[in-house]
Protein 1
Amino acid sequence: MRVEEKSGTRARILEACRILFNERGPAEVTTAEIALAVGISEGNLHYHFRRKAQIVAALFDAFEAAIAEVASGSDANTPLDHDLTAWFNLMWEWRFLYAASVYRLSPGLQPRLKTISDENQARIRARLESLRRQGRLDASSADIERLVVNAWIVASYWIDYLRTRQGIAHVEREHLRWGLAQIRALFAPYLVDNAPARSFEPATFGC
Amino acid sequence: MRVEEKSGTRARILEACRILFNERGPAEVTTAEIALAVGISEGNLHYHFRRKAQIVAALFDAFEAAIAEVASGSDANTPLDHDLTAWFNLMWEWRFLYAASVYRLSPGLQPRLKTISDENQARIRARLESLRRQGRLDASSADIERLVVNAWIVASYWIDYLRTRQGIAHVEREHLRWGLAQIRALFAPYLVDNAPARSFEPATFGC
DNA sequence: GTCTATAATGAGATAGAC
DNA sequence: GTCTATCTCATTATAGAC
């Protein structure tokens, strides 16, 4: 196992970018700013990543890996809310990847985002169909289809909504609670459980 | 009544920009491109609008005026679906104003967008509360609150969703039908009516 | 691997002639 | 009002020394 980089500069660049991009989006962050944040020169930055789009691509790789990990940690027995919380925490860390502007900068990533979206929607759909068969969800397949898509839309865009429509300049981690509540509200009317609070209870935000 | 401009160039610029911006967003459209589309020189474009942000601001004025017009054409007796359709048609014509990037270019417009959002959400909320009092809607005030926000989010972002998550490169006017159906699905479970199709029926998309 | 210095882009903005 | 030509500026990209 060879040590390929002594300094770990590459990793530091990526982590700095993840944070900066989450704050303002890749298009709004200049390479000069990135270099400054990492504490290296622009020339050195260019040595590690020839183009800004390459940084975004590398971050997207990490995003996909993180998704695979969360997905592997959940099955049909995992409580719905535990799942939801895990996904929301993940999304939070990579929220910059949910903005359309990213995919104008790096069009090649768009099919991969679509794949992620397709696979996870399928996962949720299967989960809901299963609940339906258990009699815990009162919804037709058509209802479920619309529901999954609406949940996906709200989950993808609630941060932008808070920023532009509620005037919250800096959406913070605490707002996750708000976002989760919006998602829960989508499912609530279909839940048969007379104790819906049961399936959707104590959300803890780790890390 | 003085004739202030013979040629109507200003109006042509605005209309060309509305269309171009709807396709790709103001940040992606260069001034050179605008001038070309209108069939004038960049210098002349600059004579009419010194900065691109001024074009966006002028378009926002027109947007506000259009909203006021639609709002004035609806009251508590207007069928819900007629209202929804009118709003969707309006949104479609000004859809570029629903992207966050616009408000990075022209931050001054953001409070005005918030006002629009606040006022119209209040309108919808009042409408739903009224339905509830009539016994036609089975939802608590808290439900209504969540519902209105979710509807607003879906209405604001469904186009971007279709583009980036469904891979539909060119979202067309026909997709309005799809968007409307998603919104209806949000309200459906709360409607008491045994004929919910009634309140939400024939949607015609006028030009 | 890292730096300094410089080139190459591309966009918006502007001056001045017609 | 409209054009052509030019300027400024921010940003990305690159070369070459250490």
Protein 2
Amino acid sequence: MPRRTILSRAFYEHPPDAVARALLGKLLVRRFERRILAGRIVETEAYFGLDDPAAHAFAGKTKRNAVLFGPPGFAYVYFIYGMHFCLNISCEPEGQAGCVLLRALEPVEGIAAMTQLRGLAQHGSSRLIASGPGRLCQALGITRETHNGIDVTSSRSGLHIEDDGWLPPEIAVTPRVGIRKAAERPLRFAMAGSRFVSR
DNA sequence: GGAGCGATGTCCT
DNA sequence: GGACATCGCTCCG
């Protein structure tokens, strides 16, 4: 069993495309009702700040997106389309508003609990448990109320990211999904060939 | 397996 | 008032 270490704040203090790429293969770990829910990150997207029309931070700092302008390594959770949450991790030094959207996980631990949180049949495929940003949040029980603004570099937060030494063999780079503005920029990163990548 | 579409709350103009 | 970093269902091939 290889040693697992929690990613430190320095890991996130870089441009979002670099962090998005580096997060592939890491483990997103959530403590939930005394159990551990965890999955390997297989898909991410990078969002910049004032120079990225697709980013929430593009129009400047507001009450909703304030976390993005703070220090790196904090969760930015927002509510979208009236029913879904999306989880981002802030990056770049304080004052710069980059972030990484976590889009899909390969479930690793706590699969029965994640299946239940998703409302799926217990013995079905695990492919759809966390393949998409809304599904990922539902599978881990992540909401804006419970997780926006928490520090993901602390083991006490109940949500953090670990490195167990595993590295993805091949990374595919494509345009980002579901956006209208700046839709051509290649800022989506995925583990090539993974069944757990969305759409 | 893919296109079309409705559901639904929050934020900013 | 409109847009929205989505999902799951239908209908069609």
